[in-house]
């Protein structure tokens, strides 16, 4: 992906064409090569961009408008179809360039494995990095049916890279017994089922620290986000997820990167899932860019 030319397709609402002045770079990671149930999240970034056009540029939640900040939509990273290792390497290379330019990376998946290479690069710049993970699934497996490159493994890899005590998980309601055991042994701050209240309790512990925020859209109950590959009943509602993003935004942590993953448009003809994801990205932009 080149940074010296504007992306020619659909762009996220109110995106700037001036990369130099941009405080953040939005990019898509259209990969679903390792999903365990239903594919289709590679189409997520494009549909989120299209759905962003329904949004207002002003957020009454944060009393801020998109015109008050500057961000650049670099389009989708070209990934090697069906090849996880080459695709992850391409994401690392791209994110490294974003960070070299002193911009905050804001990614759109794609399956959750795409978070792993982004965190690898962010961790190189911020060795005291912490990760806030909001998801229905723990993603702490070592492998899925023998495959270590799986959307069920990114948080295991991340916890081994940055240390389990620097990982904060919220909303988890689908996991193996082995994942629960590992979370306890690794010192992961593991908060099943709920998001907002335990998040509020944890944020003071992260005061002043660089934090990466990763949100799997399936943290939401399928009633609010049916367009995802691995639905999990019993989730939170959209209002709580928005409030959680706002709680992070209003805290004094330093968000140095973020993503939203696992939007699979084919399973939601109403497009409500993509609209929710677009609104979450708007709130991340307005809340995380200081």
From TrEMBL:
<dbReference type="InterPro" id="IPR020855">
    <property type="entry name" value="Ureohydrolase_Mn_BS"/>
</dbReference>
<dbReference type="GO" id="GO:0046872">
    <property type="term" value="F:metal ion binding"/>
</dbReference>
<dbReference type="Pfam" id="PF00491">
    <property type="entry name" value="Arginase"/>
</dbReference>
<dbReference type="GO" id="GO:0033389">
    <property type="term" value="P:putrescine biosynthetic process from arginine, via agmatine"/>
</dbReference>
<feature type="binding site">
    <location>
        <position position="139"/>
    </location>
    <ligand>
        <name>Mn(2+)</name>
    </ligand>
</feature>
<protein>
    <recommendedName>
        <fullName>Agmatinase</fullName>
        <ecNumber>3.5.3.11</ecNumber>
    </recommendedName>
</protein>
<keyword id="KW-0464">Manganese</keyword>
<keyword id="KW-0378">Hydrolase</keyword>
<comment type="similarity">
    <text>Belongs to the arginase family. Agmatinase subfamily.</text>
</comment>
<feature type="binding site">
    <location>
        <position position="216"/>
    </location>
    <ligand>
        <name>Mn(2+)</name>
    </ligand>
</feature>
<dbReference type="InterPro" id="IPR023696">
    <property type="entry name" value="Ureohydrolase_dom_sf"/>
</dbReference>
<keyword id="KW-0661">Putrescine biosynthesis</keyword>
<comment type="pathway">
    <text>Amine and polyamine biosynthesis; putrescine biosynthesis via agmatine pathway; putrescine from agmatine: step 1/1.</text>
</comment>
<feature type="binding site">
    <location>
        <position position="112"/>
    </location>
    <ligand>
        <name>Mn(2+)</name>
    </ligand>
</feature>
<dbReference type="InterPro" id="IPR006035">
    <property type="entry name" value="Ureohydrolase"/>
</dbReference>
<dbReference type="GO" id="GO:0008295">
    <property type="term" value="P:spermidine biosynthetic process"/>
</dbReference>
<feature type="binding site">
    <location>
        <position position="218"/>
    </location>
    <ligand>
        <name>Mn(2+)</name>
    </ligand>
</feature>
<feature type="binding site">
    <location>
        <position position="137"/>
    </location>
    <ligand>
        <name>Mn(2+)</name>
    </ligand>
</feature>
<keyword id="KW-0479">Metal-binding</keyword>
<feature type="binding site">
    <location>
        <position position="135"/>
    </location>
    <ligand>
        <name>Mn(2+)</name>
    </ligand>
</feature>
<comment type="function">
    <text>Catalyzes the formation of putrescine from agmatine.</text>
</comment>
<keyword id="KW-0620">Polyamine biosynthesis</keyword>
<keyword id="KW-0745">Spermidine biosynthesis</keyword>
<dbReference type="InterPro" id="IPR005925">
    <property type="entry name" value="Agmatinase-rel"/>
</dbReference>
<dbReference type="GO" id="GO:0008783">
    <property type="term" value="F:agmatinase activity"/>
</dbReference>
